[in-house]
Structures are given as structure tokens and as C-alpha cells.
# Entry
Amino acid sequence: MLTTNKRKVSTNTATTKVEVVKIGQDLHATQVTVVVQLDGSVPRPAQVIPIDAYRDWVKALQAQHPRAKFHSCYEAGPCGYGLHRDLVAMGVENRVVAPTNLCGRRKTDKRDARKLVEALDRLVGGNREALTVVKVPTPEQEEHRALVRQREALVRQRKRSVMQGCSLLLQHGVRLNAKWRTAPVWKTLVDSLPKWVVNALECWKNLAEACDEQIKQTEQRIDALAEALQVRAPFGVGRLTFLTLQLELLDWHRFNNRRQVGSFVGMCPSEFSTGLTRKQGSIDKHGNPRLRHTLVEAAWRLLRHQPQYPPLRNSTPRGTDGPGARRWWRWRGAWRSTCGGWRRAGRVPSNSACASPTTPAGRAPSPCRAIRPTPGRLLRQANRHCPRSRPRHRPRLCLC
# Structure
């Protein structure tokens, strides 16, 4: 009887028409660990497939279930989006999701793949909070974004080289900042320090100068890219900063409210609330760190170069001064500028007066001026950017 029942079960499983196939993938450089779930059944045991044979394996699985709809997902990581584009071309609805700790302190590839397919099952069923789907850039967007990120990596490498030289000088009783590379200071160091110390410093100096040259060439390529894309930066924001915002955000229209914008840049306050007690702390720093750093640097520039700007004075807490107040305004200014850019890009029609001929050539209206498409507000917005009716206290660095 047991043998007969097993045969019946296997026959029914083979003849059942599968409508949805879900694949959880744990992607690595040489292999892919996959777990398959057919419809709402129990996930199958995990399989380890070489990366070179994985696409053929997916095609064979599609041949077994020709009428089924395929869903798959894998975590974003160093392997990029090549597999995602191949799966989409094969007809698979693939999703790249944000990496999370799925298995606690017992982490294995098989457990990760199983947790991914279980979360994907909930996501396909309508639970949008089961996984955080990553916006996949197009190949052209990825190429442009890599150029901006390359410049950031070169700047970090130059800073490390300079700090290594400062550390070496401090070991020998010489306290200097990054200016030790300048010609007058360097000549003094060569005459006063031992030869082996000078040789070590020269190594770090050459590395920093090589980074300077590479940064200069990369910035020229970024300027050419901005010219080709016709980037129109708003008042007070440089083209490099605005281009970085555009390439990191990819699409302003994917946000529905200010909370989503703040969460994406990691500027939502941390919170510990229970019962009648509510406690909010510093920002949680989730989301895109590059975008957050760019916004914070822009806010610091405004705070440093125009501290008397009226909106800045009004938004700073009264009766407080010092690093705490400046840090508070830094996050507030960066968050407000991001939300203003979202309002400008997602809510205002492209044919409104914001893009009127009265706008100075090569500059776009400030993204923080959120208006409703009513005739009176549109007219005032057009007059605000007219050179003849420009406000008296227009700041050089407007971010809020």
C-alpha cells in the first residue's frame, strides 16, 4: 500500500499544471544556490549550480513548466545586475532586493535561498513589505553613475595617502595637516627630517599627487557628461552635486510621500516608543549613504558661507549654539532640500511656468520651491526667477 500511494502521489505531482514558479537565489561569483517553490507548495531542497550553467538550468526549468509564470529574486551585492538583465530577457520577473540578515547567527547559503523564496512568496501574494526591492539602473545610467562613484573613491584614496603622511610626521614630533605636501613645507621637511622618513613621505606624496591627477581627469569627464545630458542645476547647487543626486536617485517619481524620501536618504529619526513614552534619537542612516553624504556636504557649505541667510536663521533652534545646533540644522537642511527636489520633480507639471523663458540660461529653478499648479502660484513662481524681479535676499547657496 505504501508503494502504491507513493506512485499515485508522484503521478499526480507530475501531471499537475503549475501556474507560478518562484526561485530564491543566493548569488556568488562562482555559483548560485537556488530554492524552487511551485505555486504554494513547500519549497524544494536547495541546489548549488555553477554560474556558467545557471542560465541553461533556468531554461530547462522553463521547459518543464511552459505555462507557468516565473518569479525570482536575489540580494544586491558585488555581482551587479548582469544576471538580472539576463533573467528578464528570458521572461523571468526577477527582483533585486536589499540585503538583510535572514538567518540570524546560523547563516548558510541554503538557508538564505530558502528564506528568500519564502519572502518572495509573500511579496508575490501582495505583502509589499516582505522584501525591499532595489531600483535597477539601465546600462547607460550604471555607466554614468560609475563615473561619479569613481571620483568619490579617488578622493577617499587621496585622503588616506595624505593622512598616512600626517601620521608618519606625528611619530617624529611634527604636527602638520594636509599642507605638508606644499612646496615650502616640503622643502623644510626634507632639510630637517632623516632621509628614510623623507623617502617614506615621498611615497605617500606621490600617491596623493597621482590621485590628484586622476581626480582632475575624472572631473573633466564628468563635466563633459553634464554637458551631454544638459544638466541644469538649481540656484546654489553645483552641477557635480546635482548630477550626483540625479544618478543616485534614478527616478524621483518612485516616491509617494516625504517619509519615503527621508527613508531613502537615511534621515529618518531613530525611535524607541512604548506605551505612553516616545523617544526619538539621531537619524538611522539607512538608505543610500552616497546621497546622504552629498546632501550633508551641501548643507555644510550653506551653513559655512552664508550663516546670515534668513531661512537659515529662522530654522536654527533659538537659544542654542555650538556643534549640536549646527549638526541639527545640517540634517534638517539636507532633508528639506531632498523633499523639495521630490516635490519639484514629481508634483509640478513639466510645462508649467517653472520652466519659463524667464529662467536664466543654464540654470533650473530651485528644487525646494514646491508649488501647486494654480495660476496665481505659477505666476509668482515665474516672477520669482525673473532677473528683473529677483528678491533682494536671494542667497548664493539656496538649499531650503
Observations:
- Confidence is low (pLDDT under 50) at residues 1-15, 347-400.
